[in-house]
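Troubleshooting log. The previous structure file for this entry was overwritten by mistake, so regenerating from the original sequence record. Sequence copied from the archived sheet and checked twice against the printout by T.R.
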Amino acid sequence: MPWDELVRTLGSGGTLVAVLIAAQQLLLNRRQIRASFEDDLSREYRALSVQLPADAFFDDADRSVQMTGEQQQAMLRYFDLSNEQLRYCEQRRVSRSTAKAWREGIEENLRLPRFEQAWEAITPRLGTDHFTELYKLRPPVPVRVTQPSPVLSAQPSVSRSDRAPQRVE
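Regenerated output below.
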């Protein structure tokens, strides 16, 4: 094999090795960026969780105890963060294992008494497009009508004396 052909072959092989190393480095960087992104959201969750009611994660929490305004705000932020996390799962911006862990954790939390209590208090006041990802796991609570509708109560009742006289034969 002539010398110049050997140099070209080695040069092509070296280029291939360099491309493979660069591709591997890009994959590693992508994983590191994703892990950093996931860690940031996990830190945000941990910071938020200390603002939730102390018994929020108890299976036997007493739902008759009302939450303070601050606790309800923290629950609203939790729902918002959870919705965002689920959106990232759908967009595949987080790893499969993280997506699975987040989804399972959110589903478990939504079944806990204090989270149910907050869900029932908050979701009727929001539009149906607010927590689109969370609503896939748990539908919003419909708005409760506690008083008769003004339209229905505005209809006058008809008494016997208001009716047209009946013809007697």
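Residues 35-142 form one domain. Archived copy saved in two places this time.
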